[in-house]
């Protein structure tokens, strides 16, 4: 059997892993593990991002009355993660493989140093033929420092470990052109990174245990595809879904986000997912927006900056907005914001953000 990729990240949603009563669907976990083990034995490196801790914990106990919503999630995640990972560990062991748990928070991606540290951890596990199983560390992550959901986390991981593809397994065949409850809704089988229409069909509704819903899957999938990584959204409740999806001889119905032909560099990938950590903010004029989004590789010159909203130091990440307040991109500042005015007057202006350290929402795919 020949598979489409040699290195993939697979994200499994809570609704794939939990039954309708919230208890873990053990036979489904076993079946997914068997498929991953088969892929692994046939030379495909796999990083698994698995939700399901909160859903698993919910089935263990109901908290006492005075427990608030955040504490409740912490309790369930703490209880459920143990159950979840021990199931995975047992099933991988039966298949002769070793898995490892990696719990992370958004803060672990906040600086390039932290990011490279995480990257090194994954390289070590993969070199040792271990299957990393990643989840957000829900027990300690608080609201403002949380990932939107594990779809966002899986995008980051896929990009960080240089996966060729990200497979998002949910409880539905893919992205539909209307709410799937609608009888006329049709599966969209291919989405280009320039396609902004499909998003309008997606409602923000989530299924029973999901956190972000299809809308975040769509946004993240486009961003990841913009980095040059193909994204497949498929139904994890189907038997043999991973093998049927990845076997070159098969054509399973699902949604494929076509990757950008030009993959982003490592540092641009990190910047792409770091918008929560921007320290400065500037506003640029329409001319600068057009130049940056043109076919050419253009750095941001001080002449295009109309306003500094939040000051920044050399090396800080800065958010770049247009004059309507829409995000244009994110970049690493080449110098302190107090030098901008002087640079504007200079005959040979130095870029405030060099192209190599610039992530552009439209050009790199997300919108
Ligand atoms: N246009 C759409 N296409 C597909 N699914 C959609 C659409 N609009 C809303 N959804 C909902 O998104 C759900 C999947 O997202 P989510 O609940 O977060 O699952 P997961 O637990 O797999 O992350 C589907 O079950 C479906 O009800
Ligand atoms: N970290 C949480 C998962 C939250 C989440 O993003 O869920 P989902 O939308 O089902 O992927 C857990 O393990 O329960």
Automatic annotation (TrEMBL):
Question: What domain of life?
Answer: Bacteria
Q: Can you tell me which residues bind substrate?
A: 51, 138, 150
Name of the top EC class for this enzyme: transferase
List the CDD domains. AAK_G5K_ProB, PUA_G5K
The EC number(s) given in the record are 2.7.2.11
Annotated SMART domains: PUA (SM00359)
Q: By what name is this protein known?
A: Glutamate 5-kinase
Question: Which organism is this protein's natural source?
Answer: Maribellus luteus
Give me the gene this protein comes from: proB
């Amino acid at each position: 059997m020949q598979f489409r990729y040699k290195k993939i990240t697979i994200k499994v949603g809570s609704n794939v892993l939990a039954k309708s009563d919230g208890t873990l669907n053990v036979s489904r976990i076993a079946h997914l593990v068997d498929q991953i083990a088969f892929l692994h034995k046939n030379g495909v490196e796999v990083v698994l991002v698995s939700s399901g801790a909160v859903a698993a914990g919910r089935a263990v106990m109901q908290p006492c009355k005075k427990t608030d919503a955040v504490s409740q999630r912490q309790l369930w995640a703490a209880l459920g993660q143990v159950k979840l990972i021990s199931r995975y560990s047992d099933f991988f062991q039966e298949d002769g493989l070793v898995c490892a748990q990696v719990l992370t928070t958004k803060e672990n991606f906040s600086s390039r140093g932290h990011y490279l540290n995480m990257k090194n951890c994954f390289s070590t596990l993969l070199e040792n033929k271990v299957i990393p199983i990643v989840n957000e560390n829900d027990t300690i992550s608080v609201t403002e420092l949380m990932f939107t959901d594990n779809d966002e986390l899986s995008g980051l991981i896929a990009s960080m470990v240089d996966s060729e593809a990200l497979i998002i397994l949910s409880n539905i065949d893919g992205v539909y052109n209307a709410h799937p409850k609608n009888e006329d809704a049709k599966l969209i089988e291919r989405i280009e990174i320039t396609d902004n229409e499909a998003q309008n069909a997606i409602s923000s509704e989530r299924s029973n245990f999901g956190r972000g819903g299809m809308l975040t899957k769509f946004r993240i999938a486009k961003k990841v595809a913009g980095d040059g990584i193909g994204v497949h959204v498929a139904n994890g409740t189907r038997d043999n879904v991973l093998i049927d999806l990845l076997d070159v001889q098969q054509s399973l119905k699902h949604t494929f986000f076509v990757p950008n032909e030009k993959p982003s560099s490592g540092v641009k990938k990190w910047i792409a997912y770091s918008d929560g950590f921007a320290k400065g903010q500037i506003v640029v004029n329409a001319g600068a927006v057009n130049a940056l989004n043109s076919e050419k590789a253009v750095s941001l010159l001080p002449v295009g900056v109309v306003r500094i909203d939040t000051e920044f130091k050399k090396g800080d990440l800065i958010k770049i907005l247009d004059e309507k307040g829409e995000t244009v991109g994110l970049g690493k500042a080449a110098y302190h914001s107090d030098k901008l005015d002087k640079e504007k007057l200079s005959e040979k202006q130095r870029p405030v953000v060099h192209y190599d350290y610039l992530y552009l929402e439209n050009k790199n795919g997300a919108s």
